[in-house]
Amino acid sequence: TTIILRTLPGIDRPALAAIFPSETNIFVLIDAGANSDARPEHLLQYGIMGSVYSRHVLGYKNPSIGLMSIGGEDVKGTDLTKEVFKMLKRSALNFRGNIEGHDLFAHPVEVVVCDGFVGNVILKTCESVGDAIFKWLKHELVKSKVRMAGAFLAQKAFQAIKKKVNYEEYGGSPLLGVNGICIIAHGSSTPLAIKNALRVAAESIEQQVNPHIIEEVSRYNETNASLEPAVR
Questions:
Q1: What pLDDT does residue 1 have?
Q2: Distance (Å, rounded) from C-alpha 68 to C-alpha 57?
C-alpha cells in the first residue's frame, strides 16, 4: 500500500488506527500493527494523526493523548517511550502523559500512542479476551434453569454489550498517513463489516482527514524547527 500510494508530506510511516470502545467513549489505538519498529519521531506522527482522526471523524473537540508505557511516571518505560514522552510534551497536542494497560478502559483517553508491535499485541489480546468472556459466560448461564431465566431477563443488556464490542460495527481500521484512503478490514469480515468499512472511508474523505494531517504536521515542524529535527 505504501509503495503504491506513498506517504503524505511530512509523514515517514503510515500507522494503523484501531477503534476501541470503553464504558464512556471510543478511542483510537495507533499504531495497531503497521510498523513493528519505530523511531520517536514516528510515534509523534502517530499522535498527530490519531488526534486529527479523533477530532474530525470521531468528533472530540480536543482529544486527549496517552502514551502506552509500563508506568505513569515520565521516567518509566523504554528509551523509545521516554524520548517520545518528551516530544509529545513539547507539542501542542493535549498530552496527558503515560498510560498503562489497565488505563485503557478504566481511565480512557481519546488517543493511545504506541509502536506497532505493542499495538498489535494489545489489539489481538483484547479480541481474544472478549471472545473468551462471552464463551465463558454462555457456558455458565446454561448450567441451571435459574441462570437461564436470569439470562433471558438480561438479554437486551447482553445484546447491547455484544454490539458495542463487535468489530463489524466499526468496519475496519484506517491506515493513516498514506496519500489516499485505505481501510484495513478484519480477515473474517462479514457484509456488515464491509459496509461499515466503506462508511469509515467515506467519513475520512468527507472530513478531509489527509489535508488536516498535512496541516498539523507542517505546523508542528514550523513551531519546533529550532528545538529538534523535523518529524519527517
A1: 65
A2: 22
